[in-house]
Design goal:
The chain is globular and about 45 Å long. It is of the alpha/beta class. Helix 2 links the parallel strand 4 and strand 5. The protein has 9 helices and 10 strands. Helix 4 packs across helix 5 and helix 8 packs parallel to helix 9. The chain has an 8-stranded parallel barrel with strand order 3-4-5-6-7-8-9-10, surrounded by 4 helices. The protein has a two-stranded antiparallel sheet with strand order 1-2. The longest helix has 14 residues. The relative contact order is 0.16.
């Protein structure tokens, strides 16, 4: 099945280009976010990813700067001119986020939040729809239908790992799903190897495997000081690790008809 292209700004997803959207798991302060944005831009990343509202398993964990992040985001975006993707966790956040982000991310916990999906169907912005960690592919595609029925067909699916019996990694990254969706679905497909493995040392290998499976892009976590990250420190690439990965991707993607 031919993949539909999703276009916004100067970006076209699903054609012959391969995109890397990277940044920290969550915005911690202006210095951390600005350093991350400048680095991602210097390495050829086409969009900046960072959490504003962060859903965490533990109520004691850092939940993001939330509304306090607004001036930081505006300043960093004006200085780097990068497009931004961030997770939306509640329909009531749309008014606040609309002027700050270019792509809405629906996280794994909200794939089944149909009321949120209906509201995002009214938006003209692209929606990156992550697979719920317990969802079958059929359920994932039905979730996308909620957005389409609202009038928004600018959907990018994102495989981010599913929960299996294996405990050595955070999740099991299902690259079977990527290959299947590229044949049976009209939507572009991204892969998040950071959440898919939970281990930074595995991210480069799984990123390259995603290219081979036919993915249209990657969502990757990178942080100036991963060991000090307030969220997901074990899976964030250091700047040097991210630079090494991008060098490998620049050589690999042309072999699969893509350009980074």
């Amino acid at each position: 099945m031919k993949t539909k292209s999703v276009s916004f700004g100067a970006i076209e997803v699903g054609a012959t280009s391969f995109h890397v959207w990277a940044g920290p798991c969550v915005i911690e302060d202006e210095s951390q976010f600005l350093k991350s944005a400048q680095f991602v831009r210097s390495q050829g990343g086409t969009a900046l990813r960072a959490g504003i509202f962060k859903l965490r398993t533990s109520a004691e964990s850092f939940q993001g700067l939330r509304e306090e992040s607004q001036p930081i985001i505006k300043k960093v975006r004006s200085e780097t001119d990068l497009l931004m993707i961030s997770e939306i966790t509640d329909p009531r956040q749309i008014e606040f986020l609309d002027s700050l982000v270019d792509i809405y991310q629906v996280g794994t916990r909200n794939m089944f939040n149909y009321e949120l999906l209906k509201e995002l169907g009214k938006s003209v912005k692209p929606i990156l729809l992550k697979r719920a960690f317990s969802a079958r592919i059929a359920e994932w595609l039905k979730a996308a239908d909620y957005i389409v029925q609202g009038g928004n067909e600018n959907i990018i699916l994102c495989e981010r790992g599913i929960r299996t019996f294996e405990t050595k990694t955070r999740n099991t990254l299902d690259l079977n799903a990527v290959a299947f969706l590229k044949q049976e679905s009209p939507f572009p497909v991204f892969v998040d190897p950071s959440h898919g493995t939970g281990l930074s040392q595995l991210v480069p290998a799984l990123s390259q495997s995603a290219v081979c499976a036919g993915a249209d892009g990657l969502l990757i976590e990178t942080h100036p000081n991963p060991s000090q990250a307030l969220c997901d420190s074990q899976q964030a690439l250091s700047f040097s690790e991210f630079e090494g990965l991008m060098a490998k991707l620049k050589k690999l993607t042309p072999l699969y008809g893509k350009s980074l």
